[in-house]
Amino acid sequence: MIDRRYIGHTLPAFSVDVEKGRLRFFAKAIGQTDPTYVDEEAARAAGHPGLPVPPTFLFCMEMESPNPAAIRDLLGMDYKRLLHGEQGFTYHAMAHAGDTLTFSQRIEDIYDKKNGALEFVVRKTHVTNQRDELVAELRCVTVLRNG
């Protein structure tokens, strides 16, 4: 069983620079056709200071952590028994190319179902920009299959 004492544990915050080349590549990869996401002039015409960060791109940026497996390692979770259970985003402000975003991760909850056959780890990540404004809250649920 995963040790419930880790509920509330926070990992060291880390920062990632938002690069316009990566934003363009991501927009192309997801089939985004709105020129606002690939053309700086179109972005400015739409009222943005630069290329906007597409909503789910924050999850990609979170993977820029110095150790993307830190929570798994901390909790001793075998990656061969992990499932991606749920993911959610709450947005508070736009982020754009040129911003520096800081990710602060916290273990919000650990619980089990089916008499421990499934264990759930809920991670919440606060994303702030270089002005310390809250950009988004990310929520991710990882499921560990036991037995």
CATH hierarchy class name: Alpha Beta
Hey, roughly how much beta strand do the residues contain? 25-35%
Order of strands in the sheet with the most strands?
A: 1-3-4-5-2
CATH architecture: Roll
Number of β-strand runs = 5
Globally, the shape reads elongated
Share of helix among residues?
Answer: 10-25%
Number of continuous helical runs: 4
Distance between the termini: 11 Å
Radius of gyration: 17 Å
Structural class computed from helices and strand pairing? alpha+beta
Task: Give the H and E element order.
Answer: EHHHHEEEE
Query: In CATH terms, what is the fold-level topology?
Result: Thiol Ester Dehydrase, Chain A
CATH superfamily placement:
Hotdog Thioesterase
In round numbers, the mean pLDDT is 96
> Any idea how many domains?
1
Poorly predicted runs: none
List the helices and strands and how they pair.
Layout: E1 14-17, H1 20-29, H2 40-45, H3 57-62, H4 70-75, E2 82-91, E3 100-113, E4 118-128, E5 134-145
Antiparallel strand pairs: 1-3, 2-5, 3-4, 4-5
Brief characterization of the structure:
With 147 residues, the chain is α+β, with helices and mostly antiparallel strands.
Features:
147 residues, alpha+beta, Thiol Ester Dehydrase, Chain A, five-stranded antiparallel β-sheet, 19% helix
Plain-language structure description:
Helices cover 19% and strands 35% of the residues. The model has no long low-confidence stretch (mean pLDDT 96). It has one domain: Roll (Thiol Ester Dehydrase, Chain A). The protein is built from 4 helices and 5 strands. 20% of the residues are buried. It has 147 residues and is α+β, with helices and mostly antiparallel strands.
